[in-house]
Amino acid sequence: MDRPLIAVTIGDPAGIGPEIVVRAAATEAVRQSAGLVIVGDRRIIERAMDVTRVRLPVGEDAALIDLANVPEDVTWGKIQRGAGAAAGQFIERAVQEAREGRVDAIATAPINKDAVAGGLSSPRPHGDARRADRGERSTDDVPGARDADLLSHAPSLAA
Predict the structure, then answer these.
(1) What's the whole-model pTM score?
(2) String of DSSP letters for 5-59
(3) What's the domain count of the chain?
């Protein structure tokens, strides 16, 4: 059986998401289970690798879609419009990759919903309400699709 190809967003670039993604992508179990396409900003991923002292195997076991969209003035650990806008763009690109059949699934690292909402050019509702506004269906309406919390499925990452 072929390994699924999963688009993994780095989450809020001012939060813990990039570090979680770097650590998860570097584990042998993850690399053996799935191919990864990391969706984020290379500069933020490099910072996460420095902080965690983990090298992400980009080009070997993981590909990178570098949106290069995080403003230079984004401060680590603070809720910011620029970080939220970037996180939303990471998710939108991952969804595009799935819709166009280039990936089999999407996983997102943690985001701050207030930062994402603040980074939007116009206010939009979250989740199913936003999908409904665009004439789309909830994941509940799509056979085989489901929402999952990445952190609840990765207890070994805390070790």
Answers:
(1) 0.75
(2) EEEEE---TTSSHHHHHHHHHHSHHHHHH-EEEEEE-HHHHHHHHHHHT----BT
(3) 1
Task: Write out the residue range of the structural domain in which residue 81 sits.
Answer: 5-140
* Residue from 82, 10, 84 nearest 47 by CA: 10
Residue type, 72: E
Decide: 100 and 65 in contact? Cβ < 8 Å.
no
Query: The domain that contains 19 carries what CATH number?
Result: 3.40.718.10
Q: Give the model's pLDDT for residue 35.
A: 92
| Residue in the block written with tokens 């690798």 | 49
**Inter-residue contact 6 to 37 (CB < 8 Å):** yes
Q: What is the rounded end-to-end Cα distance, in angstroms, of the chain?
A: 30
Cα(126)–Cα(133) distance, integer angstroms: 10
Question: How many CB atoms neighbour CB 32 within 10 A?
Answer: 9
CB 67 within 8 A of CB 89: yes
Residue the block writes with tokens 């050019």: 121
- The Cα 22–Cα 30 span in angstroms is 11
Distance, in Å, from the CA atom of 58 to the CA atom of 55, rounded to the nearest integer, reads 9
pLDDT in tens, 15-26: 999 999 999 999
